[in-house]
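Hey, can you fold this one?
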Amino acid sequence: MSALSDQLVTFTILAFLVAMISHAVEYALGNARPRTAAVPARELVGAGVGGSGGLTPQPPAAPGAAAAERTARRARLAGLIAVVATALGALLHLGALVTRGLAADRMPWGNMYEFVLTVSWIGVTGWLVVLWKRPSLRRLGLFLTLVMVLLVATAELVLYTPIVPLVPALNSYWFVVHVSTIVFSSGILLLGVVPAVAYLMRAGYEQGKRSFPYTLAKRMPAAAALERLTFVLHAFAFPIFTFAVIAGAIWAEAAWGRPWGWDPKETWAFISWVVYAGYLHARATPSVKRNVVAWLAVLGFLTVLMNLFGVNIFFEGLHSYGGLD
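Sure. Predicted structure:
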C-alpha cells in the first residue's frame, strides 16, 4: 500500500501538470475573435429609377472568421481537457491519501509530507466544487493547478517521509478533531488565496495598468467576481480555523498541562488568526480599499505557509514532529 501510494502521488503530479498545460493552451488561444472585413459597400445599378433595382447589397464574409472560430473551439476543448485532468488528478490524489492511511493504519496526517498532501487535496476538491457552481471562473484553473503541481511535487521530492508510528503526543482522539479541522481550513485558505492574487492582477488591468501580468489579467474573470469568491472562501474557512486553534489549546492542556505556551507553531497559528480576522474586518469596512483587503488575504496565507514550513524547518518546539531531519 505504501508503494502504491507513492506511485499514485507521481501520477497525481502528472495529471495536474497536464491540466496546467491545457489551461495554458486555453489562455493562449482564448482571445480568438471573428474579424469583420472593412470592405466598402458596393452599389448595384439596375434598370429602375434610383439605380438599385430593389436589390440589397450583401456584406462579404470576413476572411478570418472561420479560422477564428476553429481557434475558439480548440480553446474550449483545451479548457475541457484541463477540467477532466484536474478531476482525474483529484481522484488519484485521494487514492494516494487512502492507501497511505491504510498502510500506516491511521489517518494520514502524521508529518509534513502527509499534511501537505491532504491540504492540497482539500484545495483542489474545493476548486472542483467552485467550478461546478461557477463554470465562468474556469480560467482560474491555470493558477490553481500551478499551485497543486508545486505543492505536491515539493511534498514528494522534499518532504517525503517513510511511514512510521505516530509520536506519543499524537496518540489521542484530539488528533482527529484538531488536525482534521486545521487541514480542512488550511485547504480552503489555500484555495482562497488563488482568486485573491488573481483579483490583484485583474483589478490592475481594469484600472488601465499595463504591468507584467497584463496578458494574463485581461483574460481572467471580472475583478468583482474574483473578490467575491475570495471573501466567500475566507468567510467559510475562518470559523473552522478558529475552532481548530481552540481544539489545539484543549489538546495541549490534556497533553502538556497548559493550553497555551507560546510554542512557535502556536504563536504562528495565532498570527495567522489575527491576520485573517483583520482581513474579514477590513472586508466589512467600506472605507478600506479592496486592494488592501486582497493583500491581507495574501499575507494571511503567507503566515500559514510559515507555520507549515518555516516553523517545522527553522524552529524547535513541542510541535517539532514534521518528519524532517
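Residues 22 and 80 are 8 Å apart (CA to CA). Let me know if you want another pass with a different chain boundary.
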